[in-house]
Amino acid sequence: MTTDVKVPTLGESITEATLGQWLKKVGDSVKADEPIASLETDKVAVEVPSPVAGVIGALTVAEGDTVLVGALIATIEEGGAASAPAPAAAAPKAEASPAATAAQQAPAVPSQTSDALSPSAKRAAGETGVDPATVSGTGKDGRVTRIDIEGAATAKAPSAPAAAPAPAVASSGDRKEERVRMTRLRQTVAKRLKEAQNTAAMLTTFNDVDMTEVMAARAKYKDLFEKKHGVRLGFMGFFVKAAVQALRDIPSVNGSIEGDEIVYHDYADISVAVSAPNGLVVPVIRDAQNLSVAGIEKTIGDFGKRAKDGTLKMDEMKGGTFTISNGGVFGSLMSTPIINPPQSAVLGLHRIEERPVVRDGQVVVRPMMYLALSYDHRLIDGREAVTFLVALKNAIEDPTRLLIDL
After folding, report:
1. Does an H or E element contain 347, and which?
2. Within 10 A of 205 (CB to CB), how many other CB atoms are there?
């Protein structure tokens, strides 16, 4: 009996996706609910599970193709057995699907580890030729991530420079160019950021913050914090709490424009930029105003792990009333972040470095950080933007304010 595999429902307003990678090829045995393909949507990668146990009969689309929700992408022969030694038997199926033939020729990930790998890690293994079984995983429960595989590929590169794939390379003498198709995520990011520039009257205001007190509190309590809550105490917990407090005092920064109306929110859903293999993703901390620092840190830590594994859910990327982006983890000194529509403001954090400052008439060295608030001037006045940054600065420089609600 033949069972069709179709593109599943991908979430509200999502009607299409890109076939990012086939995790199985024609003739492979699959179990019920075992992933056979990875779809790339506008925000996250989604795995397509097999509806039944059996053998892959045909793959009807190629990697990189755009597919609509409900479209047929593969067939499965129920109760069959893999028959790799009999290529003649597979020929009739191949002629019905040129895409299946292309998928069969794709680099294969070693079978003994394929079930444990995320789609992005499998793709990296196929592209680099690295055997995941030889790589030490840094993911949850020792899982091998794409970053682990790419690191292993970089480490072995000097001994095997010719092994690197070179798709669509045009050369002229020693000058080379490589053309790589943009992922759906990158296309969406590019489109939304350009729309933000074209729509919002964006302006950025800056301030700096003395991190002395927060760093002292973190150093004093980080061990007890991790022991009690099972998560490391970072700086984002403090900044999210301070931002929530400042948003309450300056509600326009937490608002948005819809047509000719301004929407004010009595809750703070904070979007946090998290690094993923295919670029930054922005999951949302729901009702951050009700969370403790520990709750915030746990949520962010969970987002970070699942972003690397490609398991963030679509609903976790939607909404958000205000965004915090921490470019400091990559060494950024200063930036002008772009608003994430329909939000009206985004806070940029940067690296901490010791700088000379004047305190009580004396020049002293303090750990300082630049803050940047980009905002939509159609809704937020300069006075409100500066007041927001000053309120946040005061809370970080005197964390006791966060405890007594000042």
Report:
1. strand 345-349
2. 16
DSSP-assigned beta bridge partners for residue 271: 284, 323
Q: Which helix (DSSP H) or strand (DSSP E) does residue 30 occupy? A: strand 29-30
Q: Closest by alpha carbon to 93, among 2, 31, 7, 29?
A: 2
Residues whose CB falls within 8 Å of the CB of residue 377, separated by 6 or more in sequence, listed in order: 200, 201, 202, 203
CA angle 351, 354, 359 (to 5 degrees): 120
Query: Considering 4, 223, 287, 381, which one is annotated as catalytic?
Result: 381
- Given the structure tokens 């904070």, which residue do they identify? 270
Strand partners, 75: 4, 58
| Catalytic residue check, 381 | yes
Q: Is the pTM of this model over 0.85?
A: no
Q: Tokens standing for 212?
A: 């002395």
pLDDT at 164 over 60: no
The tokens for 109 are 């990930």
Active-site position among 350, 377, 398, 405: 377
CA nearest neighbour of 270 among 310, 304, 239: 239
Residue range 272-283, pLDDT digits in tens: 988 776 667 889
**Within 132-183, where are the H helices?**
146-156
Task: Out of 155-164, 179-188, 189-198, 232-241, pick the least confident.
Answer: 155-164
For the chain, which domains are there? 1-106 (2.40.50.100), 110-165 (no CATH), 198-404 (3.30.559.10)
What lies within 8 Å, CB to CB, of 191 at 6+ separation is none
Q: Is the peptide bond before 342 cis (omega within 30 degrees of 0)?
A: yes
DSSP letters, 44-96, are -EEEEE-SSSEEEEEE-S-TT-EEETT-EEEEEEET----TT-HHHHHHHHHT
Contact of 149 with 312, CB cutoff 8 Å: no
How far, in Å, CA of 168 to CA of 108, rounded? 20
